[in-house]
Amino acid sequence: MTDFDFDKLANQMERDPERPLNLMQRRRFLQGALAAGGAAVAVPTMFAEQAAAQAGNDTIFVTVTLAGGNDGLNTVGPFSNGRYRDLRKGLAINPATAHSIGDNLSFHPSMRRTATRYRRGDVAIVRGVGEPLKDHSHFSNLARWQSANPGGQISGTGWVGRWLDGQSNSQFTGLAIGGQGVPLHFRGSSAPVTDLPRGGGSLYGSDRSNQIDQRMYRAIRQMGKESDRGPWVNRVGQVGAQAIDAAQAVAPAFKNELPEDRLIADMVVAARMINLNLGTRALNVWQSGYDTHDNQIGASSGVGDHADLLGELDVALDTFFNTLSAPMAERVIVMLYSEFGRRVEPNGSNGTDHGTANHVFFLGRRVKGGLYGDPPPLNQLDDRGDFQVTVDFRDVYATVVEQGLGGSAASILGQGYATLNLFGESKPAESALSRRAQEIRDRRKEDADDYLLLHTPSF
Amino acid sequence: MALSRAGAAHLLRRAAMGGTTAQIDTFVGLTREQAVNRLLNTSGNPSLPGWGRFDSGDRFWVAHEKMIDWWVDRMITAPPSIEEKLTLFLHDHFATGIDKVEDARLMWDQHLLLRQHGQGSFRVLLEKISLGSAMLIYLDNESNVKGAEQENFARELMELFTIGNGRFSERDVVAMAKAWTGHNTVGRTRENNWKYDPTYVFKAAEHNNTTKTLFGIKKNWNALETLDELCFGVKATATSDYIARKMFQFYAHTNPSQAVVDQLAAGFRNSGLNIKELLKSILLHPEFWADSTRYALVKSPVEFMVDNMRRNGLRSDGEHVRWRMEGMGMVLFEPPNVAGWGKNGYWLGTARTWAKSRWTNNLKWGADERGVLQNLDNLSSDQVVNVILTFFSIFEVSDQTRNNMKVLIETTREERPWAMAYEPFAVGMFMPEVQCA
Questions:
Q1: Pick from B152, B296, B407: CB nearest A293
Q2: Could you identify which of A271, A350, A396, B391 might form a hypothetical disulfide with A323, taking C-beta atoms 3.0 to 4.6 angstroms apart as the criterion?
């Protein structure tokens, strides 16, 4: 990812005046330049590397919540398949620009880096994941995916949160990135998840050098002591104390400049927090905007809202892995999921309405790369024209709990589920030379499919 | 029952955008009914600015910031009434975001609708908002046409604006989408040189003019008939239940019993879905006044900022309100999605707390210049605590909060007496009671 290219954006506006720039793009266009690109960030210190090497081997689990309902079919799909092309019509991806991964499947043109990662054997794609849909609501589907109870019951706790409840009660074991509060799947009954702001700014409580501040910190911390003041007064007090306690430890993650792009910045913060080696085992990052009812695709299948989102995601994932220290990179498993996929046939607005079954992706050196789950057949859609679910999302979670994080799926998910064989020991690290060679190969294509990674989240 | 200071403060925190202790005192001694009626019948500043005040050409984000500043200043300065809080509730209910609409004028037009119709019939407001350009764009009904229906608006109309999830089927979504076909914007036309025209228009040729089955009723549904059915027909109970519950949760507490909701919903239906009548019933409901309801909500960032800016004599100018609110998680005219903002736990997290404390900690430096806490020298520690609590209009306070403040004041006096003008103030903004409503 290169620095913000003013000329390129001006050129895009000239070529494609019909397609308005989004809010963020306009703002940046006026500001002139993006402060830092994705690649130029966060070199972990030697100290962190050494500490990490001694830190054990537990899996670190990162969820990237693709909010709004990602169109999995156009993320990885059979783009040459006649049936696919017939059904998808104007939204069909041009296979010539996509990144083939064999089995008649390709990654979206925007996902070159992730496709490369797949070819290295570091990406698993579980197809047909979901549950028999009760409705097509964003909010209840996301809540069901995050609650992960038998029968799709929505609860006040989520599956990662319930796993965190059984871990140490450090407030760094679970982290929510992006300044949007703690998502439901990270909420447990007792696990104190810390959520981190978007971008930097001073973190109140991080400066312990001043005696005067200590007095105020102490007073604020005292406000957090449990008492009979009513549940919300208590919670407010506790969170204030938690912020004071956590500030100093997390401040280093914000010390160096961050990329301006929100998702990339969030992924960099996630990687830096992992490198800090505070015992973090689970992190969530959000990417919003996948509710592509309109403008899903632009003049060609390499442009448009969905292409922008996936391109941003592709760079963010790459930046994340590049920011991780080597020993930590061996331990990380990233999961990409969404509340549902999208309808197979387009709507009338150059977009797609809410669908059902979707891909869930796993990335990391511990992932046994390849295809999992039966792909829902394109010629057996349900009466709404949606895919049939072939894999229960709780099977996928059970696999994460039992093979990845370590724990009893039955106690966390309320009952036992089938598991897939998704994870193993880290594969031997590739040599620096082969990695460099791959990077050079990747870069040559960069001009062709690199584009602006600017996006304002909203459904 | 005559209102105490604590009761009057509670009422202003909930029904209005808070108030200073001086404002609260003007409600002390009134009966609940008198106080509520006064809030219901006080109009804010009757004059609203024209669009020219915000117009920034194509730079909608500049206009957006001006609109935020204007609204925040209005919330601070308008006499206590229901208008600003109710407009905020309705903005959250009919959540529409400038990040997608990308036209500040359309957001302003919608804002005016919330004020013009927000205290009247829910059915009328629902129609005005649904056919307003901002909503047509935000939920894509602008391009919902016969033969290529799209469901975004149809679904959220039922799920979020009227009856709530679980009270309609997927078949209803299909039928509803068809009923709303052709209710579009003018869009791009040759006559207008292909420039986008967001004006609402009914394109008869794009309307699906067939029989559809909606809520089990077979007929050739058109958009406005569906609103009648939702508000007054077979879904009247569901809509009144959903709106009454949501409004009670916003104004009182988040766990009303079904009996309480049923009673409010029945009254709402009897009033012909009059929003102001429903609000009045909520504000006079015994549960609204219960001890357990006090501080049972967490202030949203807008409530927190407005109340504290007013207390400190601050206005939007120089406060970078948009930026502050973004850190705290609430940018007006830009809700996170069509479900709007959350409540209580939604506002709690370390990230939002840091953003909040960045602001409060900044405010402390001007506190002595603004003269917010003065002449403390000859007061006992207990008296200083009372001055601080009175400054923040906290008249019901836990022993724990009181004791913590007292300890802080005693140590500050001993170790650093000159900091008395701002340290207790800074920590005071952290009192949980100040952060709750």
A1: B152
A2: A271
